[in-house]
Amino acid sequence: MNQILVTKKLYITPELKRKKKVYKFNFFLSVFLICILISFCIYAEYDRNKSEEVSQKILADLQETTDTTVAKNNVMIVVLDEEEQSAEIVDTQSTVQTSATTTKKTSQGYEYSTIATINIPKINVQYAIIDGKTDSEEETEALLKISPVKFWGANPNEVGNFCIVGHNYRNTKFFSKVPTLQVGDIIEITDLSNNKVSYRVYNNYQVDPKDVSCTTQLTNGNKEVTLITCTDDSKMRVVVKAREVK
Predict the structure, then answer these.
(1) Which of 23, 149, 182, 226 could serve as a FRET partner for 110 with CA atoms 20 to 30 Å apart?
(2) Could you give the percent of the chain with pLDDT greater than 70?
(3) How many CB atoms lie within 10 A of CB 116?
């Protein structure tokens, strides 16, 4: 029996011990990396959800401000004529833009203003569109985390090409579903005067990230909207072009 035990021990060579240690190290390293990866994914999802909350808060604030201002601008005033004791009703409806352009700041200190809302019924997208103060790359990257951003071009619902950029989070948030839009789909833009204009998609294509030809303002006198986001692998840019429905 002792001889058998000794013989078995002889099989546990230094090489086997070394391989066992390497195996244990690799195992614990793999577990550690998996935990790090899971933590990163959880944090990323948490960060995206927080971004969605901030974006919807911006949208709600804009809608509340717009509704309040429109209500004030549509007040009916009764003017009494002292001599004839008659009443005249005056409509004070105004089309002047609301005061919703109040400048705000992100937690990093970047200033922005809310300039419109975008609604895409087919993919259930509704967000405020914000515009940075300096249009720097750092500012745009910070603003993209809280809402779609004006990238270039005309103001909302004006003649020209209103270019909007938004993140593709590969889920249902922000511009993640924009690449699925097809020719004929409708995009609605509501400006600060509460004027809503519908735009019909006429093109959807991909370009190199350095290609900005889609931002051209040569629209032949038409009102156009261009949506820009990343492909799922972030290697290319998806461009969706739409023109006003007349």
Answers:
(1) 226
(2) 70
(3) 26
The helix or strand, by DSSP H or E, that contains position 241, with its residue range, turns out to be strand 237-244
Question: In 3-state terms, what secondary structure has residue 179?
Answer: helix
- For residues 207 and 184, is the Cβ–Cβ distance under 8 A? no
Instruction: Residue 188: name the closest of 237, 99, 98, 116 by CA.
Output: 116
- The amino acid at residue 63 is Q
3-state secondary structure of 204: strand
Query: What is the pLDDT averaged over residues 34-38?
Result: 72
pLDDT in tens, 175-213: 999 999 999 999 999 999 999 999 999 999 999 999 999
Confidence tier at 34 by pLDDT (50, 70, 90): confident
Average pLDDT score over residue span 21-42: 70
CA distance 197 to 178: 19
> In which residue are the tokens 């515009």 written?
131
Mean pLDDT of the chain: 80
DSSP 122: G
For the chain, the structural domain boundaries read 49-72+98-244
CB of 104 closer than 8 Å to CB of 112: yes
DSSP per-residue letters across 3-69: HHHHHHHHTS-HHHHHHHHHHHHHHHHHHHHHHHHHHHHHHHHHHHHHHHHHHHHHHHHHHHHHHHH
Query: What token pair was written down for 202?
Result: 């006429």
Query: Region 145-166: what's the mean pLDDT?
Result: 96
